[in-house]
Every structure is written in C-alpha cells, then in structure tokens.
Design goal:
By secondary structure, this protein is mostly helical. The protein has helices spanning about 1-10, 20-45, 55-60, 75-85, 85-100, 105-130, 135-150, 150-155, 160-175, 180-190, 195-205, 220-240, 255-260, 275-280, 305-310, 325-345, 355-385, 390-410, 430-435, 455, 475-490, 495-505, 520-525, 535-545, 555, 570-575, and strands at about 50-55, 210, 215, 425, 445, 460, 510-515, 560, 565-570. About 55% of the residues lie in helices and about 5% in strands. The strands form three sheets. Strands 6-5-7-9-8 form a five-stranded mixed β-sheet. A two-stranded antiparallel sheet has the order 1-4. The protein starts with a helix and ends with a helix.
C-alpha cells in the first residue's frame, strides 16, 4: 500500500501540491525525448551525401539564391515557389544563409529546434488544462511521436512551423498573456497564414459564453481586448497576401478543377472523390479527419474521455481539470468553420483539410494525455481505498500503470520505420556533379523522374518536373501545362523542325532522357504523364512505328550517360 501511495503521489501530484523541481523533472524528461527523436531523424538526414526531405525539394531549392544570387536566373518555377513562400519562412532561411548556414543544411537541423519549442509549449499548455506535470510529459511525448511518425516536422516547410507557433498561441491565450499571444499570432500569419484565420475564429468565439442554458456575450473584458488587438494583428499580417500581385493567380474555381485530371480520384492531387465519406471525412485535402489522427495508436484513448468525465466519482482527478480546457472546443469550432468556408470557396483558402488536420491532432494529443492520467489516478485511488496490505488491487494498479508507461514510452519500438521523415536520396551523384559544373543559367528539359532532384542537388533550372506540378493557381499551372505539353510533343515528334523550334523557343541547353523513353510502355505506365493533352498523340505516334527525331541524337549528341539516363547537348540537336 505504501508503494502504491508513493507512486500515486509521484505520478499524479498537481503543481500546487508538489515542488517546482518535480515539474522541472517532467519537463526535462519531455525535452530529452524530443532530442532523442530528433537525433534519430538527423541520423537519416545525414546518412548520405545527396539526401533531402521530399517536400523540401519544392520549398527549399530556390532559397539557394540566398547563397548565390546568380542561381536560377529567370527561373519560372523558382519564381513561383519564392512568391508563395510565407514572409517569415523565407526570412528565417535568409537569415540563416546570411550567417553561413546553407539552406539544405538548415532544413535538416531545423526540426530539432522546432521539436524542442513544440515540446515546451505542449507541456505548458497541458498544465494549464490539468496541472499535473506527468500529464504534460505524456502530452509532449505523444506529440513528438506523432511529429516523427509523419513528415510535417521533418519537411521544414511552412506547415512544420504550425506545431511550435500555434501551440505557443494557445499557451499564451490560456494564460491571458497579451503581448506574447499577439507575437504568436503575428508569427502564425508570417509562417502559416491559413491558421491565422483559425486563431481569429478562436478569439471571436471567446466573446461568447454559456449561461443559464443559452449563449450570451462574455462579461470578461480581457476577451474583448484579446479579440480586438488579435484581429488587428491578423489584419496587418494577412494584408500582403490579400494584395498579392505576383501574377501567378487566380486559383482555379471548383467548376474548373472538377474538369482537371489532376484533381480526379486517380490524379496526382486527388481531391474530388465520388464517395461522400472519402470526400468529406477522410480524403486527403478534402476530408475533415486526417488518416494520421490516431497515429500513434495510443491516441485512441482520447475516445474514452467523455466516459471518464461521466464517471468522475471513480476518477477524482477529473475535478482538477481547469476551465482552459474549453479552449479545445473553441479550437475545434473555429477550425471546423474554416473547413467549411474553404470548401465553399474551393482553393481560395487552400485545402479545407489543412484547417482541421493540425487542430484535431492538438486536441487528441492533449485529451489522450489527460485521459491516461485520469485512468492512472483512478486505478491507484481504487487500490488505496480500503486497502491495508499488498493485495490484488495493488497488483492491478501496478500492472495498469506499468502497461500505460510501456505503451506510451516504448511505442516507437513497435513501429517498423521510426522516425518516418520522408527523406529521399539522390542516386546519381555523377549526374548532379555534371550539371553543377555547367553554367548557372542553363535550362534542362526532361520528363524523366530524376529531374525532380536536379534543382536541389545541381542548383540548375529545369523546364518542368513532376515535383513542381502544383495545380492550384492558373497563372502558374496554365503555363506549366503548356510547357510540359510542348515538351512531350517535341520529345516524341518525328518532325525535326518541331523539335528545333521547341529548343529555340524555350532556350533549352540540355535534354535528359531515360534510356527507355521511346518505348510505348514508358508513356502508358506513367500515370502522371497521362494527365496531359499531348500524351495520347505521343502514344499514337509510337504505336504507328514512327521514330522520334530526338532518338537519333541519343548517340551523336550525348554528353553524359549512365545505365539509366542520357544527357544530350541541345545545340547539337539543333544542328
């Protein structure tokens, strides 16, 4: 009984009933696990010379302009991704480059610091809702496991910053710390603008309260102060996006997008799905609930939370839950409102699912941590009640607590590939070095899959690449479609004049071909190529036995080749 009593006190002691060192212990343990997971991620990031996170190929490659302004001159793709990069995001990378940290290095080490900041604020926010240090540890541990079992954090794209910055906003809001809260709101708008609208929704919802069985305006002046100042900051940071004149807009309308193969169920950016369940609930981009919501699976414990509250007499620690927990409901309502608003204005507010994905993850993490704490407290309380010796009740309490501890702490050991960070390795170092040795203003034409790596590993411009086929803004994607249709047509035409005109029109310097590029299977097996209008024409030409004009140049104009690709000199092709 003494053992259970001590264990119960150590695990479930509230902040006001324990020493400050007790809280520091659990916070330090939380940060330790955050560092441990980050080290495992860094091990993958630096496991090869040519290694990059998948999505970073889109969002980071153009930032090498910060190191060398002569890179990617007049590059249509680089200009687009630079234009859509949030101001805070690009400024942070620019500052790192200024002090000598290369963007490709910075994107690998940044997750460590984002993870630590997220851990700190998750721990603090959880204590505002249930002031038990162990609960903060469980919440931060579950959050870190989730962040390293999905690729959001490791991507170091703008969405990676949602974890530390939005958690900071929720933390300072729950503590009614005005200036830090406003600072966090500004950072949300500068790093991940869509969630500034979620923050605005929360601030407005806090003006309402439930009283005498109905909704009424809050009588707390603090809520009005936070709302007015917070909305003012949001207006200022969002104004540049509203006045965007980059020339890459506007976004496609719902009617236009429904006619595009890219958004079809089997398209690369599948959005419009015939099954309403998939479309509204679980579909990527369109659904309210991300499929990774209960990753790790221990998050399922959150589903028990209503039952634990209903049986609060058996779980006395439930009485220590603070009113700040209502912030989670406000977060859910604000995110849901933006979810439906994004559906009503397809793509103008970006993907609807982005507004609920992170909010629901925060909610599930915090509710799971609180639920696990209530269960541990309830079992220990039950074992201590009317017990004088080490009996069956004590054994059950120990086994339950040990099981929860093992499941929470050691869960990553059960995951086949942990952490799951989405790093991709470039397998053609000689190819990258070849292009890197060419002039900085060259343009490479290719539909080969290896083209995705060239801007990142060779710092040279490509005409098109699958990785950069982002079909949301007309000003960008209509020109992108034109480029790839022209490229496919030129690659498979038997008319040498068409081929020469294409090279001269776009100023192509090199043409990279897969060795099997002129086989019918090459085109038919590539689902991405089959989304474009000129592909059927190319297939028909090959079926009719016509030999592409480019085929003869694979021998006479080759300047680099390996077992997979051949690089041709465009000036040789023209001659």
């Amino acid at each position: 009984m003494v053992l259970i009593a001590r264990l119960h006190k150590f695990l479930t002691a509230t902040v006001d009933r324990t020493s400050r060192s007790h809280t520091i212990f659990w916070l330090t343990l939380s940060l330790t696990f955050a560092v441990l997971y980050a080290i495992l991620g860094l091990k993958q990031a630096f496991s090869a010379e040519y290694m990059v996170q998948d999505d970073a190929r889109q969002h980071v490659f153009w930032m090498m302009r910060f190191v060398d302004p002569e890179l990617f001159p007049n590059d249509f793709i680089a200009n687009y991704f630079q234009s859509v990069a949030p101001a805070g995001y690009s400024t942070l990378y620019k500052l790192a480059a200024t002090v000598g940290i290369h963007p490709l290095l910075f994107h690998k080490i940044l997750p460590l610091f984002l993870g630590l900041i997220s851990t700190y604020y998750c721990f603090g926010l959880c204590l505002e809702m249930l002031p038990v240090p162990m609960t903060g540890f469980i919440a931060s541990l579950l959050l870190n496991q989730h962040m390293w079992m999905t690729d959001d954090l490791a991507s170091t794209t703008p969405r990676a910053f949602i974890y530390p910055i939005f958690l900071a906003f929720l933390y300072y809001l729950s503590r009614s710390s005005l200036l830090p809260c406003l600072g966090a709101i500004a950072l949300i708008g500068l790093f991940y603008p869509p969630y500034a609208l979620v923050a605005a929704g929360i601030l407005v919802l806090r003006l309402l309260c439930w009283k005498n069985g109905g909704l009424c305006l809050s009588g707390d002046r603090t809520n009005y102060l936070f709302c007015t100042t917070g909305l003012g900051v949001i207006f200022l940071v969002m104004l540049p996006y509203a006045l965007d004149n980059s020339g890459f807009g506007p976004t496609y309308t719902a009617a236009e997008a429904k006619q595009m193969a890219e958004f079809a169920p089997d398209g690369r950016n599948a959005f419009f799905r015939p099954n309403p369940k998939d479309y509204w609930l679980t579909g990527r981009g369109s659904g309210m609930f991300p499929k990774s919501l209960f990753t790790p699976v221990t998050h399922c414990v959150a589903l028990l939370f209503p039952l634990l509250l209903f049986l609060r007499s058996a779980f006395p620690l439930a009485n220590q839950i603070q009113r700040q927990i209502w912030l989670l409901l406000q977060l859910f309502l604000a995110s849901s409102a933006m979810f439906f608003a994004a559906h009503a204005t397809i793509f103008k507010l970006y993907q609807p699912g982005r507004y609920t994905a992170y909010s629901l993850r925060f909610i599930v993490v915090l509710i799971t941590a609180i639920s696990l704490t209530l269960i541990i407290d309830g079992v220990c309380h039950w074992a201590l009640k009317n017990s004088t010796t080490f009996d069956v009740k004590n054994l059950v309490a120990l086994i339950t607590t040990a099981t929860i501890a093992i499941a929470v702490v050691l869960y990553p050991c059960l995951v086949e590939k942990f952490p799951t960070v989405g790093y991709v390795e470039g397998k053609m170092p000689d190819l990258y070095k070849f292009f890197e040795q060419q002039p900085k203003d060259i343009l490479i034409a290719s539909i080969a899959g290896e083209t995705d790596h060239l801007p990142t590993f060779s710092q040279r411009s490509v005409l098109v690449a699958k990785e950069y086929a982002v079909p949301y803004q007309k000003g960008y994607y209509s020109k992108y479609q034109q480029r790839i249709n022209d490229l496919i047509r030129a690659q498979y035409t038997s008319n040498r004049t068409v081929l020469q005109n294409f090279i001269n029109q776009y100023g192509v310097d090199f043409w990279m071909l897969d060795r099997n590029a002129f086989t019918l299977e090459y085109i038919k097996d590539d689902g991405w190529l089959n989304q474009f209008d000129s592909t059927p024409e190319a297939s028909l030409s090959l079926e009719q036995g016509k030999i592409p004009a480019l085929a003869s140049a694979m021998t006479s104009c080759a300047v680099f080749q390996n077992e997979i690709v051949v690089v041709l000199d465009a000036s040789c092709i023209v001659k």
